[in-house]
Automatic annotation (TrEMBL):
The lineage of its organism: Eukaryota, Fungi, Dikarya, Ascomycota, Pezizomycotina. Keywords: Membrane, Transmembrane, Transmembrane helix. InterPro entries: DUF3176 (IPR021514). It comes from Apiospora kogelbergensis. The chain crosses the membrane at residues 101-125, 137-163, 208-229, 620-639. The keyword Membrane applies. It comes from the Eukaryota. This is Uncharacterized protein. Residues 63-78 have a biased composition (Low complexity). Residues 20-97 are annotated as: Disordered. Pfam families: DUF3176. Residues 85-97 have a biased composition (Polar residues).
């Protein structure tokens, strides 16, 4: 009897047939291929290769008597065709092929989550101290991990979509196999994407994926560059507060009455003293013998200020961290000022070998030799402000000095005396109040004077009840309300200095800033005599006299000249390149000593160097742009694939093997490959992505050029 067999294919059964044993020969159906080892004769029949295994099945042609339903109606060889339902299922992709977009959608969600998380973290961390971040990995590492996740997932999704575009592209338009290859290469990385852009001339939105693939190369470097660290000084709460010295009352030195003397009085006619007008005044006082001992610390500060060229002594402060600031604060201080009074000089000339002493002159001629003068500089102390030219209104003056200096060219014998320029300068030191802005940066102290005042409170430094209190008013007029020292016995209240309220507001001083300051009589009665002695010589041994400019109280002048260099201070004043700076340095040294030795301090703020996380937001632009382009390309690809009713084959190799070139196109390319012209042949071949009864397949057009 005839046997009935079922041929099994890879995915379906195509035919049921019966093998006829009569004659040992069958006719090959047109739709079937000849098995390996079989041969066809001229009539279309094929013969079995006896060398093949005996279980091989030989196919026969389907007789016309076989009906459509595949039922066998006779005993002759019968064949049956598979049902239409089986044929339809062959064309429609099975749901188990896993050709869907769920993987791409999932990883794009992961990509977006990574980008959003990175952005939120950057917003949160921007400007915060690095010490606030306590995660087990560094902030840079965390951002790098998120950037890597975003980049990797985005690259995967873009690659899948570029792979899908080789199907979409040929489904929409005929094109060459080279384009198919270009999309396949683009799905594998940046180099293929570059050549895809070149071949398509970047004229289609399908190239968005290629652009995105190239831009992904800068994704992670830009994310790494987003973060940098900035060091800032921040106020902290230390255990030891930063402190800086200040003073609102100065009481130094020792002023002791040893013995009282006799009473002494004198009549001062109207208009004879310091330009006073009004009635004649009588001054009477009990004279005394005093012991005055100046503060050694302040005396040392005066010497350091004038004798050394070192930077000004800083006020004492405490700053543990090396970075501290203090609010603007006020303190009792010593100030200085210098003015050029050269326009007040008078020039005298005379003849003879010995014209005697010329009063009010700087230099005395000797023997008529005009190139040999004795002194190069002369300086004179002025204790009373009325004796000065430019400080007559300075009622807190400690002392003033008038200085006449011949230019160095004369001392170097480069000029004759009558050609030499003489410069006159008047400098003063006085009690004042300063507003300071102080800070320590990296262990180095910096300080600026915001403003300075020397406003004496009217009525301060008045006589207390005592033996001469009734005469103090006239005596104060006699000395022009200066702080000049006399031997009269007076017991005085503190000298007071005040910062006007409107000035404090104008300079934005703190509400708790001290505005009233006191200086005791002990301070004035001991400090001023020391300064007076500092600026004069023990005796006048020179043939020179000082141009007094109205001087009424005699003090020994200082000189610096050819035969005698004078005192150290005279040498310093002559050699000073800038008298204003010299006196300012001395005043600052005295002020800092006063502040450092006071029992008052100002508390400040300690600052520490803290690293802050900073974000370069412009660097975020590229990663965000890449993600937006990538998301757009992925979802546009999904939409386009759905519109074309194509399966999501993407980069599936099995799909490529199954639905790629038809037999004719492959044969043409194989023949061209044997001659080394496969790519040239591929460029001239036009493919259509067609759907026939067997499913989708790339087919070469009939009019394609042949080899």
């Amino acid at each position: 009897m005839p046997s009935q067999l079922l041929l099994e294919g890879e995915s379906r059964a195509e035919l049921l047939y019966l093998q006829d044993y009569q004659g040992g020969q069958t006719t090959r159906p047109p739709s079937l291929s000849v098995l390996e080892g079989d041969s066809l004769d001229e009539e279309g029949a094929y013969h079995s290769d006896s060398t093949l295994p005996q279980h091989r099945i030989k196919r026969k042609p389907v007789p016309s008597s076989l009906n459509e339903s595949g039922s066998n109606q006779s005993s002759s060889p019968q064949y049956a065709r598979v049902s239409d339902e089986s044929s339809i299922s062959e064309k429609t992709p099975s749901s188990t092929d896993n050709h869907s977009w769920w993987m791409e959608i999932s990883i794009m969600v992961v990509c977006l989550l990574a980008v959003v998380t990175s952005t939120v973290l950057l917003f949160y961390a921007d400007g915060r101290p690095l010490t606030d971040y306590n995660f087990f990995v560094s902030f840079n590492t965390l951002i790098s991990i998120l950037a890597t996740v975003a980049r990797a997932t985005l690259a995967f999704a873009i690659g899948s979509c570029l792979g899908q575009w080789k199907w979409n592209w040929l489904r929409k338009r005929p094109d060459t196999p080279v384009v198919f290859e270009s999309f396949e290469d683009a799905s594998r990385g940046p180099m293929g994407s570059f050549w895809l852009l070149y071949r398509l001339r970047a004229c289609h939105w399908a190239t968005i994926g290629a652009y995105t693939t190239l831009l992904i190369l800068g994704f992670e470097p830009f994310m790494q560059a987003v973060i940098y660290y900035e060091g800032l000084l921040e106020t902290t709460q230390p255990q030891t507060a930063p402190l800086i010295g200040t003073s609102n009352r100065l009481d130094i030195g020792s002023y002791t009455l040893l013995a009282e003397g006799s009473s002494y009085g004198w009549l001062i006619p109207n208009g004879t003293v310091y330009g006073m007008t009004g009635e004649n005044i009588t001054v009477s006082s009990v004279m005394g013998k005093f012991r005055r001992e100046a503060s050694g610390g302040l005396a040392s500060a005066i010497y350091r200020g004038f004798y050394t060229n070192d930077p000004r002594d800083a006020v004492s402060f405490t700053c543990v961290s090396g970075n501290c600031t203090w609010p603007i604060h006020t303190s009792l201080s010593v100030c200085s000022s210098c003015n050029d009074i050269s326009d007040q000089l008078k020039v005298y000339g005379h003849n003879g070998t010995d014209a005697g002493t010329l009063n009010d002159s700087l230099l005395q001629e000797t023997g008529g030799n005009e190139t040999d003068r004795e002194a190069y500089m002369s300086a004179k102390l002025l204790a009373n402000r009325w004796d000065t030219l430019t400080f007559t209104e300075l009622d807190t003056m400690i002392a003033a000095v008038s200085i006449l200096r011949a230019e160095p060219a004369y001392a170097n014998h480069e000029k004759r005396w009558n050609e030499t320029l003489v410069v006159a300068t008047e400098c003063a030191v006085y009690f004042c109040t300063n507003a300071y802005r102080s800070e320590v940066r990296a262990g180095i102290f910096h300080e600026d004077i915001v403003a300075s005042w020397s406003n004496r409170v009217p009525g301060s430094y008045s006589s207390k009840p005592g033996p001469n209190s009734a005469f103090w008013g006239n005596y104060s007029k006699f000395i022009n309300h200066s702080l000049t020292i006399r031997e009269a016995i007076f017991y005085l209240d503190d000298l007071q200095l005040q910062i006007p309220k409107e000035e404090a507001d104008r300079h934005k001083l703190p509400d708790d800033a001290t505005l009233l300051f006191n200086i005791s009589q002990n301070t004035t009665e001991t400090t001023l005599p020391f300064v007076y002695g500092f600026f004069q010589e023990p005796a006048s041994l020179k043939e020179l006299e000082f141009f007094g400019l109205g001087q009424t109280t005699s003090y020994n002048p200082m000189h610096y000249g050819k035969s005698d260099s004078g005192t150290i201070i005279a040498h310093k004043l002559y050699k000073s390149a800038n008298l204003t700076e010299t006196f300012a340095r001395a005043a600052a040294t005295m002020s800092n000593w006063i502040r450092s030795n006071s029992n008052l301090t100002i508390a400040g703020n300690q600052q520490e160097w803290v690293l802050h996380i900073r974000v370069r937001w412009p660097c975020v632009t590229l990663p965000v742009l890449v993600v937006l382009l990538g998301c757009s390309f992925v979802f546009l690809t999904m939409w386009e694939t759905r519109r074309l009713r194509l399966p999501a084959w993407k980069t599936d190799v099995l799909a490529t093997l199954t639905h790629s070139l038809d037999t004719g196109a492959r044969e043409k390319l194989r023949e061209a490959s044997l001659r080394g012209r496969m790519r040239e042949r591929a460029k001239g071949m036009i493919l259509n992505f067609e759907d026939d009864e067997k499913g989708l397949e790339l087919k070469a057009q009939d009019d394609s050029p042949s080899e």
